[in-house]
Amino acid sequence: MKTEMGMGGGAWTEEDKAMVAAVLGTRAFDYLMTSSVVSENLLMAVGSDENLQTKLSDLVDRPNASNFSWNYAIFWQISQSKSGDWVLGWGDGSCREPREGEESEVTRILNIRLEDATQQRMRKRVLQKLHTLFGGSDEDSYAFGLDRVTDTEMFFLASMYFSFTRGEGGPGKSFGSGKHLWLSDALKSPSDYCVRSFLAKSAGIQTIVLIPTDVGVVELGSVRSLPESLESSKHSRRHRSQ
Amino acid sequence: MMRRNGKGKTRGRLGVEAKEELKKTLLSFNNEEKQLQFGGSASSPNTDYSSPQHHHNMMMETGRGSPQEQQQRQQLTIFYNGRICVCDVTELQARAILQLASREMEEKTRTPTASDAISSSLHSQLYSPTGLSMKRSLQRFLQKRKNRMEATSPYHR
Description:
The structure holds two protein chains of two kinds.
Chain A: E1 3-4, H1 14-24, H2 26-34, E2 36-37, E3 43-44, H3 50-61, E4 72-80, E5 86-95, H4 105-111, H5 117-133, H6 151-159, E6 164-165, H7 169-177, E7 181-183, H8 197-202, E8 207-213, E9 216-222, H9 230-241
Antiparallel strand pairs in A: 1-2, 3-4, 4-5, 4-9, 5-6, 7-8, 8-9
Helix pairs in contact in A: 1-2, 1-5, 3-9
Chain B: H1 16-31, H2 67-71, E1 74-80, E2 83-89, H3 91-117, H4 120-123, H5 129-152
């Protein structure tokens, strides 16, 4: 059955909560605090695809003929509980830092700031807290081992801790409706494509694509503003169908 | 740097007896008592149930130090991990042992309570398909990151 995600007796102080909300954005924070997670008796709809990781990596690390590649690719994997409820959870993903000249001028200027030690410390602590909240042990704790957490990395890593049921969040809506989403101006858009929008915007993501499949949802993002065109669609579809 | 755990929990491998022994030792150093006997039957300093040097988990240096230092050694009987050790310790050594013991007990008590705090549904996340996927992705992410850093900075180690 669905269970409330609890904070664990006394494990999160008000200060902790404020910090997490500041780093992830209020919507993401609220979502994590209140979402019902169907976590017990989860069955994978299909086994994990060995090629999946390669495909996702290629979308990110292998530029096409026009020298384009996505900045992140996430696969939200469908799982189903005994009661028949389905939930999308982290399946796999890949990300990379924006290359020289890739980001919009606006983003580039906004990102020219001195390395904020406080923000870095907060980011690591938030990741650490999420890691522990999800049952991670101290042994495989990674957050404080990172020299720094970039905007892209923060978005990517925090995303791992999200799950979506029907209609919830961008992936949930996409899977529920069976419709894909192509957003070209995510930075300027007043509406959030997902509860994780705050983090996506911090990472300078301008284009977001959500593609439902039988076994989950593929989410792609780019710091470039890309109109939905035949070229870009073909690129993604080719990789998905292989 | 040295900490003293005054709570005297009974959990952990190092039992209450050992901790009490150590506390007595430290007290004795403070009170400058030189003829303190521990462990009831430790009347003979030569009663060695096991050699201190080879004792499991013991980090002791024996037989070193100036005559002055040796004068300040106290006999200590420690019950640990199913063995008994009778040895002479300096205050420093006693403190070090106490610190080790405290740390070990803290680790033992910390781990179970962390999972108590998290609701069981979340804890099972770790072993759910999602949890395993997360671990895998994380490992690859960290490896990729490491490779990138090593590639750009050949002197980085």
